[in-house]
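Hi L., both proteins are below.
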Amino acid sequence: MGNSYAGQLQATRFEEVLHNSIEASLRSNTIIPRPVFSQLYLETEQPLAHDGRTENDDEDDEEGSESNSPPIPYQMKPPPEGCCTTDGFCQAGRDLRLSSLASDSLDVAPGFMLVGIKSPSLPETLLVCAVDRRFLPDERGRNALLGFSGNCMGCGEKGFRYFTEFSNHINLKLSSQPKKQKHLRYHLYRNNQGVLVKGATISWRGHDGRMRHIGSILTEGQVTTEEQPPNLATQTPGSYTVGSHVDPAGLPQIADLPQSLPNGNHAVPSITQPPPNQSGPGRTSVIGIHANAGPPKKRHKGWSPESSASSVSESTLKTLPSSSAVSSTVTNGSRPEPAALLGSSQCSSTPLSSPAPSVTVPNQLLHTCRLQPVIFKGHGPLPQLTGNVSEVLVSSLLQSCYLSSQALPRVYQHYGPSPIQPLSTEMQILLTIYYLVQLGPDQVPLIEDLEQIFMRSWRESHLSEIRQYQQPQTPATQGRHYAIETPSTLPGLPQHLCLPHQSQQPVTSSQLPWLAQLAASSCGEAVVVLGEHIRSLAQGLQQTFTKLMEGQLENTNYVVLIVTAPGQETQSCVVVTGKHQCRALAEGMFSPSEGLKEINHQLSTGVGQELIHFCNSLGQDGDMDSILDSATAESSEPSPVFSSQESPEDRNLKSTHSSKDSQSPKERASSPKETCSEYSVEWREVRPIQLAVARKLLSHVCAIADSSTQNLDLGSFDRVSFLILVPPSEVTFQQTVLHLRSSGVLQDLGNLDQESVSQREAEHYVVKMDQSAQARIDSLIQEAHSNTYTLYILVHDHAHWDISSASYSSSDSGLGLVDQLLNSRQVRDAPNILILHVTSFPFTLQTQYTRISPYNEIHWPSAFSNDVDLYHEKTRYFGVSELLESTRSGSSLPLMRHDSSFESMASALEERFPKLHSVVIRTTVLIQHYCVALMAASGRIGGSHSLHKHTSVETLEIVQALLTAAQQCPAHHGHMVLLRIPSLALAAWAHRRLSRVRRQLGLEESFEIILGNPNQALIIGQIFTDQIKTWLQIQDSDWIPHTYLELEALPCILILSGAEPLGESLPRSLKYCDLRVISCSYLHRTTLEQELGLAAYLVRQESQPPHNPGPGSDLLESDAEKLSSTDNEEEEAQENDDSPLSSSQQPQSCPDSGALDALPSQSSTVPNAQKGSVDAVQSSSQSQPPFQSQLSSQSFPHPQPVPHLQTQTQVQTHPQAQPTSQLHPQPQIQSQTQPSSQTLPQPQSLSQVQPNPQTQPLPTSQSRRQHSKSTSSGSLSPRSSSPHLSCSWARGVSRPPSVLLPRALYDIITASDSSGLPRCTSFLPHMSVAWASSFRPLLSKMMTCTEQSLYYRQWTVPHSYHMDSSNRTEGRSDNFHPRRLLLSGPPQVGKTGAYLHFLGILSRMLIRLMEVDIYDEEDINYSAQAEGVQYHSLNATWPNPDIMRTMPFDYTIHDPKYDDISAVYSPGYRPSAEGNAVRQEDVYLRRRTSRIKLSKYAAYNTYHHCEQCHQYLGFNPRYQMYESTLHAFTFTHLLLGEEIQLYFIIPKSKEHYFSFSQPGGQLESMRLPLISDWSPDSIKSPIFTPTTGRHEHGLFNLYHAMDGASHLHILVIKEYEMAVYKKYWPNHIMLVLPTIFNGAGIGAAHFLIKELSYHNLELERSRRLEGGGPAGDVWPFVILADDSCVMFNAVDRDAPIGPTEHAVSLKQVLQHMEACPDLAQFGLCGIRKWSSRGLTAGNRQREPFSRGHLHDFLLLNVDQSQNIQYDQNRFTCHDVDFTLRLHSAGMLVCRFNSFSVMKKQIAIGGYRTFIIKTKMTDVPTSVGPSQYVCAPDSKHLFLATPAQLLLEKYLHHTSQKLFPLSTKNYTHPVLSVDCYFNLGPEVTVCFVSSRPHSVNISTTGMLFSGLLLCFTDSFVTAGFLKKFTFLKGATLCVISADRSSLRQTVSRLELEEEWRFRLSDEFQTANAKEDRPLFFLTGKHI
């Protein structure tokens, strides 16, 4: 074709291109420039690019630029002064934005066009300008004149000749050189409505800029993979897009592509073969396609026409970043379509006028080709298929992928002037072919991988734009998702193939077939493209079928059909023709349940019989059944296991054990001596981490209760009940019951003793989710409805199992029950039902429509987080990630591996039986392997040497470990082998088959075979049951094991069936987890991880499983030599060409089986120690006898101590062999490698019984293994000299089980995606959900569980058959159920124990919530003698004022909170000798409390929410919450000397309690009732509660305490706390104290309450008078209540057992007191403080009313007590002071002893919490009481504490020094005039009032030891003081506000006559002058 194909060399451009190429190479330090000639050869004819961007579009654009060279700085010319510089306006200030000018009529000069300019500062709009059309390109991007001519459409200025000048005028504000190609972006035109809109993109061709070069292009011989720059794969994204040239094809350039393919020599160098030492991920070379064909070039060296992708597939597959879009047809709702119906149902974006022609499927297609082709629909309609359509499958997976990759998310659809475009059809087809080319011969295409390739390509082409959008949307790691920061990319895909820049010219449909041929040519015949010679898809399909029938596609896996015709859209489809691929895809099209149905159908119709017969035949070794029959006949003579193959010496050495080994388990069990000291069962223990998770669950429940949503009122529940829902598996059900019985939860919930928790009682709390669950849950709903005080927890365990929508599930399927029951309206709306979902795989419940709030998710602490160390765990969790890690560590044999020999046998049979399901074939082969291995290992088959080649090494090793483990333990503990067979029918067949072989071999008592059917109970033989009972020491004769956990240490094969595991836990004796037959078709994260989760394990922390199992490992179980026949042969073969031993072959510890026996026997002639599978080793050993194993005594005459683990041992070619690294300290069986000609004396071993090693080759490792197995339990092991071998089970529990996987799954699971996570994590999470968009980031390795949850919530949507699909509410972004939690944690980690413990602590917490700590202290200071006088009768209802006046006033303080204050002197009282007996230790302990259950009349704090309280707390439908107003209230008081302004905060709902002025609405007064008013539902007295620091904990919710009665409750708060109290109590009236009281004490609050109340009483009387009513009738009482009064009690004196107390409401207490007929005669009433011993302490409480001090809860008559004020300055003892003054004024004080108040202990806030801090630091400091005062004018440390408080504290703590004569001198008290101060517990105070007519005690004849005068008023005179007599040396203390008043007081009272003063006796409080210190003077009596 020559150059005519695409154009001629354009010589005129040569210099320019050469210059650009040189410049580009100079500018870039890593990027290889594109050869000049490849730029110049072609100038193709192509339509516009998608978005019209030029080649150098973003060349200098900073937005995406991260190139290595700094951009050339560009400085714009500064704008002229005074001009407009606003974006979107020109310098003349006129608007240029398209949005503004769209409707304006614009004057466009002739020859000019309107053009839209892209401004970097206004990405969302365009600027309008007019440009001369001559300087713009035509539609082909050509013929634009150089230069510019434009006009401004804003101000009309014309004639701009330079684009630089014009860009300045329109304020583009660029940081780079202005270029018209970059900023003139769109044509503008007017639509039908005449509105100016954006039109087509201006298709600039990039002739004028520097050409950019794609990174790492393999130009002719320039860079091979070996020479590849090391950082190529880790370039920043910008390096590719900005510093790279991307060709018009939208594909990166490649320089050396051929023009034609004359003889197949010009394969597309899309991948290079990695050198053997570099086969790790990401070594793929970075190459691509140049869209313009160039002249033929030489092929890149290192490529051969046959180089298919298989050489790279191993490494690249491991790095597939796959987020599956649709991982099976089921996931996107499409089913495999019957081919005959396809024609009519096809849809195309361009419907064809004529019907598509049909295609006839040839007859006998399956029979002839032995495959069923799969047709992937692609672009365009698929022709109708006719004829033999049943033998062709059609899938729409690929089509769905294409569509989803082109459906841009909404966020990108309106991206301003530069719309982001999806991938073109041609690009998708090319990428698809590239992907298929990379696949290995056995790999199956995954749509997920292809989707990721599309996404990667699209992202890189729009890197800068995407970044602007997605950085703020996603977690912190988001930026990494779009970068190409890791070398591990998509499978074999050239790096830059992912980076085509859409701004370039796209691939045209005419070029596509040729480019596709080119792309496919590198893989030989594996991918065939039919494109150039077919006119329609029908023709291509017909050709394909013809070639298939003729056998021309024998070596072809994929045929890609491409139809391109001028003027029509490109059409395509892919026909899969590879046998393996067709089978896998066909099986993947069915859902798991359909797959199981198909398997059952095949089994029931008998089509598998031929396969079974085929497998039974062992070739020339005979038929398996006949060999077994002969063995059965011979087995009449007893033969211990393994004996038949042993040498006579071995047999003699072993005879010491043979009698024991031949015992039946029953005999063993009955032998008491044979016990194993190492056996222990630990699954009953609760581990610290489980406790921590239980607490996390509890804290989440509390968070729901504490939130303001009122969704859960924990305070209203008094008990917990629960129901645990489990999947319909009998074992899971019994396992949960077992955990429940042993957890003690039922005891915690009450009513059950430990002994009485029977199986039946526990089963009542667990239900299987089958048809029986309906009735159980219905009854629970009924219970919940009737028991509103019980909190019901529905625990939905294994919550991912049934997520089917009830409306989509048939009743017989058993699915949809969870949706029907848990999502029902009754459960959802019940306020006392809380649902806890528990699952290992929460992804299914984390979708866009989830019902669970992200805040209600609890994740198990990760093993990698630092938190785990805090729990002091004795165990370490070993799960899926640790299994994966073991495959990468290389330090030992991986715990997870595949079995190559099994895979090769299964593959061969799959080709032989194309109609059979692969699971049937694989299961048959596997069971055959187990049967043969049993025959070989049992030793009962003569000539068993020939059997080994009919099984695999892995299977043989499993069976041998199973058979021999029990022999090493005196109690015969052994291992469990798990065989996972999902199909119930296949599992039953496997059980029958294995049981028969076991019976025929006489091994029935050696191990058990258990069929694990989820629908049936566990069945095991009686002898094994007896064995377990002996181990577990169970005496119950009827006991049988119900769970797998109880099979601990039982040697058994467990065949676990069922479509998926249903939560069954496995014992720690699980040693092998055989998953070789699980299906590889359903690649969902949940499916894969729950199968792998079967092997999850808790390992004792002391042992580090992957590294060092320790010296006690059994020799039996070596795994090292298996490397020669399993796992990763090809990869390691490439990696290790340079060393005979790979790293993983170094003799090291096996994590699952102990120390290695020795090095694998290796031939010195085989260069690779791991080459090939069993077959390969067999073929390589045809020419030489297998190497024999040597005993250590012969190989090594002088056994040496074992070298360290890392010793590198090389295979030797001379007769001597090095000692190998062993973990045993003793010499063990060693392996020696020798030339084949060498002969040495050999002991008889299995490998020597072969008649002819040449004709019956055996893998060398197998012969080695047999010898070690057969002799290991004899005396050749150093341990065998002891009578009992150590327990193999005990060693096994410290090592996780080994996992065997299908090869396909192994490759997928062990691969990592580009984020470094295992590939399976990026699969679709579950078949019931779909990805919301293909345009999603990958999961990141750094994501926490919470971030993963948010990821799935953003990017997955449920299918219509998912139960959450209906959870959508219009107009709401979230529709979370408020009482639903999700606990997630890895499998087998202990979630059941955690949630059971949670139920227990929740129950205990509810009990605790219903209890409260009440001060429970006995009254103090009662004299021993009881009063003999009874004043009131015991049944008196109310106090009689006359009787009360005859009662003496009790001056003594009895409240225990005042046990450290000064006693008040009264004549009749004598303190006991020991005082109040305050023990020294009690000083430091908190006061005595009792925990009391809350009654229904309790007061509550802000944490209480219940439905009844809603309206009370402000949730009133009539009023908006928080709707309240602030009202000022002013009154004058003489004591304060000024007007006081108070503020009331009054909620709208409480305004009726106040009167307001009309008009104006000024607050006038608080309404008071009349004395005569009475209502049974209201309280007349306003309740005032002073409070500080207790906005959350104060008990202000009196709704229940008042029993619903209406009452006026006012909180008295300090100004600075106003906001926080208003926030927590929005519906309470607040009285805000003036600012001056911010630092005041409780005295100030009570003072203001009392004075305000009296002032209000006067106002109300005036208001009543004005209204014509009687003034004196207004109710004069108010209540002063403490903020910690929680409950109230009344004494029932008529109880038969004597007086008792019972809880009553505050309403009852107050209504009783208010109803007292003579209440107006009392000045102050109160009630006593509750004490648990209050009614039992003698006679003192028998008097129903008493007269004495009152505290905490007071009913105050503000009218009678108007002249006695609280001391506003007081901080302490203000109530004692007030009561004394009130009594001295002659008023009656009465305590109602029939009522008591309970005070709650509140540790936070309150008026008693005072902090003494210094003025300097303002932080609490330890300042002693002696420093509270100082001498006046001294330089002392001033304190930032009120002066009054300092004085009170000083007098309290230092009174012994101040009043030395008063200490412990009750008969000589300190005289205190008109006030009471606490002078400490050792000083007694005698209170006297100086007021005339006051009531004082008789002081005649008394001698006082001191005199205290504080702020004396005019009533205190010198004459008054002369009435009292003082001791000589008595102390005087005079306190005043300042020094002058102090002196005046001394002179006025003539104190100097009797008292001596010194200058040093004057003091002040330690306050600065501005803080107004108090002064006092002391003196001595003369």
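That was the first. Here is the second:
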Amino acid sequence: MSNFSDVCVKLGIAALEKDWVDQVWDCDFTICDPPTDEAGISIDRRYNESLLRAGQLLARYSNEDNAEQGGQDFWSLLSDHDLSYRNIIALAFYCIYTGQQRVASVVEKEAACLATSLYFNLLQVPGSGAYGTFHAVLFEKAVNVLKHWPQTGGNKRKHKNDGAEVQGKKPPKAPRRGGQSQGREDDMEQEGDRDGENEDEDDSDDEEVVLSAQEMGRIKQLLIGCLKDLIRLLRCGHFSLKERQESTQHALETLVSLTRVELTSEDLSYSTDLSLGHVSSLTQLAYMALSILSTGAHGEVVAMVTSLFRLLLPNVLMMGEGGSVAPNAIPQALQVISSQAVGYACHLAQQGGEAVMPVYRILLQHSCWRVPDKAEYRTRVSQSVVKMLQVLPTPAYASFLEWLYRFSRSAKNGHRTFGLDMALALLPEPEREIEDNVQDDHFIYLTRMFLLEKMIIARCSDVAPNVRGRALSCLSQCISSENPNIVLLFQEFFASSLAKTPGVQRSNTPLTGGSTALTPLGLTPSPGAKTPLGESPAPRDVSFGVGAAGGTQNLFAMLGDRLNDDKVGVRKAALQAFESLVSISPTPPSVKEVEIIYQRCMDVSLSVRKQALQSLTTVLHKNPALPHVHKLWLEGVVPAVMDRETTCSEKSLELLEDTILEQIDDVGKSQNEDCDLAWNLLKVIAGIEGQELRRYLGKACNIWSRQGKLTARLLKALSTHVSSDHTEAAWMMLALVAKYCPKMDYSMVLDNWQGYRDGRGVFSKDTVSSILQVMGSIAGNIPKHRINEIMADLKKLLRGYACDPGMIKDLVLTLEKLTKGCSKEPEEAKAMMDEWATELLRRSEEYLSSLVLDEDLNTANLDVMAVVRHLFTVGEVAQLCPAKTSKRLILMVQSFLVDNTKLDELPSSQGTQVSQLPLSQGTQVSQLPLSQGTQVSQLPLSQGTQLSQMPLSQLQGPALPPTIRAHAILTIGKLCLQHEDVAKKCVPFLAHELETSPHIPIRNNVMVILCDLIKLYSTYIDHHIPAIAACLKDESPLIRNQTLIMLTQLLQEDFMKWKGTLFFRFVSVLVDPDDDTRKSAEFCLVHLLSERQPGMYFNNFVQCVYHLNSYQHHPVYNKFNESERERKQFSLAGEANREKRRTIYRFLLEHMTDENRFNLIGKLCSEVLEGFVDNVLPLNAETSQILQDTLAILCCKEIKLASLKANAEEDALNEGDAAGAAFHRATNKFLTQVVKKNMIENIVPIIIALKHQLEAKRSPLLRNLMVYLKEVMKDYRNEVKDIMAADKQLASEIEFDLRRFDEQQREQEEERQRRKSAGTPAAAAAASGGPTPSAPGSGSGAPGTPPRRLGQHEPGAHPRTPAAALGARQLNVLAIINSARKNMSARRGARTAEQADGGEGTPSKPQSPSPKPPTPTRPGDASPLLPPPRPRTPLRTAGPVTPERTRQPCRAISTPDNTIADITFQAPFDVSAITPIVPSATTRRVVSESERSPSLNMAADTDTEVTEKMAVICLKHPEATEKPVEWKVVTPNKKRQRARSRPQSSSAEETENQPGGSTRRGARTRTPRTSNS
């Protein structure tokens, strides 16, 4: 080993100057100058080889096999060769320092690695501690070398000499000797100097160096060697860092950082006994070093593990450098790092046992607390936490779940959301067996049912929308999971609603506890970061599962509520959960459950609609045999083909294609469940209820034809089914497809037609209609001779007039197409058409004229259906050949319109009445094409219920049946479309029929015809538009809905304008009694009409207030020309319609912009409120509802600006929209100033003036004004205070009135709550809205006297304050009088109920005072636009009167004695201590000792105690009037007179000082004589 001395010579260790070495040591290894040239030290390749050799030789002295002897030999060698260990350490530091510079070359970096290994090996030599070779700063700098792991793409610095050796390169100069001390302190404080990096600006000019792959590989191998040497150092027994905590902490930080450097996919072993020769992974070596540090040899295990867990936490949470969060997907490298950190944490927990479990629990808590608020992070971290939980023993596991449950109810949305992810990750895990050492109240936390119920389902009703949505998503994932544990859980869940499942006995201990404060993990959480125990704001806990009867019903109900949530994400998640729950339910879904999903197909949100379509399809495939599922699926999915959003339409087409189109196959191959489902659906479409569905399916076929999906294979497959059980459905589908496949084979079609003509087989009417449509579609492909045969058959059928109107239409259309297909020349085809059309019209004319001109016509023998067929044929043929329609025929048809034909009574042997037809088939307005108005005469007949089968019992006298007149009107409408002169003559008659006809089919057909004629003859129809709009109030829901559709179409196409009262007719449908009509009106106004007229609601709002209240005396508003009938029809005036009016107001306000709402507030004040102030509007019974409505509108929450709502910014943050939150914040700040300025300058003066006017007139509407004034003061208290600074008297009065009003409101609410809880007849009467009987002694005067309302004054009473208009007698005064009466009756025992003034009978013993008398209120007092009042704290608690010494002086704030400088409105102060204002002539009762409140201090009142026998009661008659108080104002000249009168007034002063005396200050009044009744 003597070679070590030779290597030291080559390294120049012996040649180092002593001064230089001392300087390095004195600087504590922070900085140094290069050695002098005499030392001959030049770092190059050869020098590095010597350093490597020195390290290898030094390692031999620390060989574990001969460590003691090697140490002695080493120190002897240094002594023999005059080598100083100080020189070796100084040289090692110089190399380390040089290699850590920012511009260090590759050779210098390699030298730093070799010097680090040399230093670590030197520390391993036995005896090195005695020589002081360890230095904390040098050790940290040596450890810092490990951080310089070369990264791919990093260290991009160019070589000065192409990577050659840098000769004579010297580091930057060190500061002078005199500045060493200060420099050492500064360098120790800076992290950059601790890392050995020099940030000197002088080095910035050096060019960057790019490391080649070979150089990077060589440096990596050297760094791995350094790390192995560090592990050997930590393993050796004579070296320990126990007393060097800073060095230990630094080593931990560096080693943890190394675990993030190199990505390795191999399984790591965290053992400390591995052989270093077989390990080459940097991550593996770093974890080995950490394991050695945490064994206890280098410090206390718990302290080391605590520090280690704190450093590993970013790794577990997959955070980047500096705690950054991945902007998009989490990189794979961070996921691997997290997995390794989690495995190592589990290893430490298992190795440390019970000692480290508290620290391990803290790591788990911090992992939950600090998880980034992103979905992917929460999911992966929750999985990591679940993995770490497996190490915990059962008691600790249950305890952590208890903490997790409280954590999931934190006030922070992110915490509650992560609690959901944790519950979702824990559910698949098997339940732990309950051990003896588990606390009883922790049993419930070990069950999966608890996780499902309390941590997932309970969060579905969270106040935050993102938490609700996440909870519903978790619930959906649980329900649809295939994990056997979760499947078993839901089996138990469904079974629990029928019978309680045996299982673990769960404790009934409430799930409450102390604070959920997070234990610091090395670092204290940020200030204010604590977890409140309580439930999240306004959550609803739902009880389900085991022990909860009807758990599934409650769950379905909760999901139904969430499906109506105002947030799109919540509705979509709820829909997924609802679908999953319905799919796994052991019972088939009910109609109501499937309807809930169906209704979401019409959601305003695109994503919800698409999800609803998918959910309905899933439920359909799960229940393919349920008819109601078939019907609702078709009504939800098929109309979506015409959705205005392309993606939704494409989704509908995709589902239709997968479910129906692709399942149509040859009859021999259609034997599977999917094919049966497809044909069952087609049967529904082909049936009676499928008329609208066929229209939408035809649109789908049109799209499929453009996409090339209507192939020959499909036509062939359909042809094979025409003779099977699916005949009707197959022909229906062929009729739709043939329009786009005119080249299809005609032989099969003609064969079936011939079979129908020959009577072979059974053909329904719908089947024949479908065959006719197919023949018309393929007319161009049929040979001419066959066409002639078919045309002859069709003419024969038409001439026979034996077909129903629906088939007549198909016959005429088919005949037209065959005629055009028969001849290629248009003129020839036109001539052929005129020929058969003329013949048909002639036959109908002859038949109709025979009826009209027959004076002896016997109505009993009249064939109603024959008349209907002729009329219908005329209408259909006349549209094809209008020129062939004679005037005589038109006159014949017109003669059927007049209801004066003398016909005998017809036998009522017909079928179903039109009014009995189903008015709604479940089809919404949003699904109906507005270009088509359904005609009643056609709709029932095509559905199998014939209009001609009207019960003739409705005929009155010699009148035509309504069926004939309805079809005659329909025919004349078709003629009007072709002949303008006919339209000009018939329109007035049709409008008259619309108003006077009592028959629904007639009114409906007239309305449809007039709406069609508007498009051609607007001049003739314009002045009849009010009559058409009046149909919105028709008694038939069908007509109301049809009118709504037709008017919406005309407004959309600009055939009609918003003139006159049309807008108000439309909004009146918002309160229609029929739900479908009301929803249709909302859809039309919001989604179809308001987009074209964005300011429509604002422009008509004030007009709407006057119009809905039917007020016609305003000089500007509601000046419309309308008939008395229309005015009565649409009037919503009066108290009975108040809620309807305000429903309309709310709708209009909800769909206004903030700009419109802001302008509307000023407009209402100026146009309505100011009208009352300026006497433009008189204050009477007719205008009172207008004022009430206006004040209610100004108070309602809908009129508040959405930008100023407190939760707008919070909602944006909850949705993760930081930019939106910032926008709301800026907008809020700007708008607040504008709104406040407008309120103070323009609105408050009007309110104050109106308040004075109402007070002067003692109007009961003052209460409504006070409600609004209270809202104004609550929002603009300081601003109102500033504007009223000049009139302090007015400010004082307003404050007093508001306080008085609040007191009365509280008392009324208190009385309502008392009645509700008492359950007395009075309570029942109050609940039902009826009058409440006046109980004896209730302060209501003599028996039978009706109670007075608030604001009703007694005759002769003089209010002392402006607020006295609200009521001359306060309720608390009445309560005192009642209490005095009953107490007097109880003590004297001599009065009877007849003698007392409203008193009770003589009781056997004293009774406690009765509650305060009820104050009846008018039904209109409460504003329906406002939320119901919350229970308020009563003004005064029940009990005796406060003694005079503890009572604060109180007086009316508006009395002229003094004014208050600082006015505060609604200031929070304790009003319970304020003595009620009692007139000076009314004395108070002195309570006895037994009645004193035990909470009061009575020690100071011993001088005023009065025994029961000495109780004094001074009572004033309730009806007695009181003179105004005389103010005693005296002049100085009368001072002598006052002195003389003082002896006479001494008795009055004594009375005043008694507890029962007067408390009014500033005046002495004499007490009048009390009159007893």
